Amino acid sequence: MVMTVPESQQGKAIESWQGQVEELRGLVSERAMTGETLLLNMGPHHPSTHGVLRLLLELDGEEIITCLPDVGFLHTGIEKTIESKQYEKGVALTDRVDYLAPMNNNTVFVMAIEKMLALDVPERAQVIRVICLELTRIQSHLVWLGTHALDMGAMSAFLYCFRERELILDMFEMLSGQRMMGSYIRPGGLWRDLPDEFLPALQHFVDIFPRRVDDYEALLVNNPIWRDRTEGIGVVEPEEALALGMTGPTLRASGVNWDIRKAEPYLTYPRYDFNVPLGEHGDVYDRFWVRMQEFRESIKIIKQAMKNIPGGPVRSQNRKYVPPPRAELGRSMEAVIHHFKLWTEGFSAPDEEVYVAIEGPRGEVGCYLHGTGGTKPRRVHLKTPSFMHISALGKMSQGHMIADLVGIIGSVDIVLGDSDR
Amino acid sequence: MTQQTQPANPVELLKERFPEAVKYVKQFANETTIVVERKQVIEVLKFLRDTKGLLYNFLSDISSVDYYPDPPTEQRPERFAVSYHLYSLLYNRRIRVKTFVPEDDATVPTATTVWEAANWLEREIWDMMGIFFEGHPDPRRVLMPADWDGHPLRRDVPLGYETIMFSFNVEEILKHKPTGKEGRVSE
């Protein structure tokens, strides 16, 4: 590599448009200080960074020497805002954390509240929650597959994926009236029961979707360009993946068998028979492959759950935490009092702490909830998989070409709302 | 299964190994919280990770709590607390290690030497809660802008909001708003 630094500039700190490069000393290599390697901003407006992710790259030719991810452009202070809201009202904010898996964030927050209050959830609600969570997983993976393939130059997969995702969003609209931010899952159960048209729509989806997954695979798996660009790229060893805090399909692609649905089963997951797909090499291709298999496993779970949806209520009957149905308000004074108390003051939770983790589409989503003894939480911390995966991007992309970086970012499936909260 | 792979009781082993560091142990909703001395938290974490029978090898989360404005009690001697949520893949169980941090010396030794995953989690706590991690390799802000003043998740930082406009107060509010000409309702 020929040095391109003019003689007068050699040995001097470089001034960039954002201040002194000196601030980066210790974070980038010494060669960047003299201008021998190139410092390049990728994002936050780059289409392949899946949102507003900025990467500061140090490049030697096309090779990445250092990659410094920078997040926070989508920080909306959700954790702070939840502290000023009653527990039930906080649910609406958790939708906005990971906007591709809103049901998932609802569930983890609601499960933390339920654990704290020891609140019962009717079985019907639990089964419907499982169906919703698996649909969320499929639709999140569909967005991932579409955009990941688009980044790598396969345009048509994107169109097919969004065609199927539309079916799922339509079902979510039936459930909650909203395509994405439904807040359908509430403390003690669900907002309301399934509408009549939901199950036929779900049946239609379950019938056609496995064939569609085969179509996606036919587009990509046997495509020599796709395989050339993904195999052996961004390899993460299992020990390294655990040390870096990776979870979910990204961890499983490295061969670590850890799925929270199996390890610490929640809701009605222990009833269903499904496999946990594992990768072997921990490269971009294996992460792709694991998620493709997860489509099929999710459909398996939905099929089993659909067959056996028990009857009964969809919300807990504990009136101290769950408002009475509207019809009761006309008949019962007690119901009016409960309704008034719950919608003005809200319910109280003890001054204690709980941590709940569930398996989201991207990995372990955790909620650390600390009550005050009053009606508002003291602290809600959402441990989000994207945040951990972005922090690992630097390690994963070292030594790769800049063109491969796009594939690596796509393969860990990041959502910036999830990371910035 | 041999004797060595049997899961051991983390509380007993910790009390035996660090009799002074472990302050008290709390049980709530089937979760164990071990409250330890701040200066020894890294040794405790390393012990939990490496000891046979414990092997809490995965760092799930690091979270922080601000107990302001509650007065200090015997159970909560300081204003801040940092909680480490550990998970053992082998024994499939979780544990929480918690340490209290005083307001006038809000520092904790960094856990990046134990798990690399702690890097960004600690940066986030420094950014949002203002608890500094001594020895952290990259102590920059992560979510807030680099020139931000203060730490927004502290409970004494007010949550900003705008007063809702009604017909009785709309003129008063608009008077103080830096809107352009077109934004004015009254002439």
Describe the structure.
The complex is a heterodimer of chains A (about 425) and B (about 190). Chain A is of the alpha+beta class and about 425 residues long. Chain A has a single domain, classed as Orthogonal Bundle (Cytochrome-c3 Hydrogenase, chain B), CATH 1.10.645. Chain A has helices at about 30-35, 80, 85-95, 100-115, 125-150, 155-175, 200-220, 225-230, 240-245, 250, 260-265, 285-305, 335-345, 385-395, 400-410, 415-420, and strands at about 15, 20, 40, 55-60, 65-70, 185, 190, 355-360, 365-370, 375-385. In chain A, the strands form four sheets. Chain A has a three-stranded antiparallel sheet with strand order 3-4-5. A three-stranded antiparallel sheet of chain A has the order 8-9-10. In chain A, a hairpin with a 5-residue loop joins strand 9 and strand 10 (about 375-385). With about 190 residues, chain B is an alpha/beta fold. Chain B has a single domain (about 5-150), classed as 2-Layer Sandwich (Beta Polymerase, domain 2). The termini of chain B are far apart. The model of chain B has no long low-confidence stretch (mean pLDDT about 85). At the A-B interface, helix 2, strand 8, strand 9, strand 10 and helix 14 of A face strand 3, strand 4 and helix 3 of B.
Helix content of chain A: 40-55%
Proportion of residues in β-strands of chain A: 5-15%
| Order of strands, widest sheet of chain A | 3-4-5
Give the terminus-to-terminus CA distance of chain A: 42 Å
CATH homologous superfamily grouping of chain A: Cytochrome-c3 Hydrogenase, chain B
Query: Most extensive interface, residues per chain?
Result: A-B, 41 and 40 residues
Oligomer: heterodimer
CATH architecture of chain B: 2-Layer Sandwich
Give the overall form of chain A: globular
Number of strands of chain B: 7
Number of domains of chain B: 1
At the fourth CATH level, what is the homologous superfamily of chain B? NADH:ubiquinone oxidoreductase Nqo5 subunit
Strand order of the largest sheet of chain B: 1-2-5-4-3
- Mean pLDDT value of chain B: 85
What's the number of domains of chain A?
1
Calculate the terminal CA-CA distance of chain B, rounded to whole Å: 84 Å
Main sheet overview of chain B:
5 strands, mixed
The SSE string of chain B, one letter per element, is HEEHEEEEHEH
CATH class category of chain B? Alpha Beta
Q: What is the general shape of chain B? A: elongated
Q: Strand content of the residues of chain B, in percent?
A: 15-25%
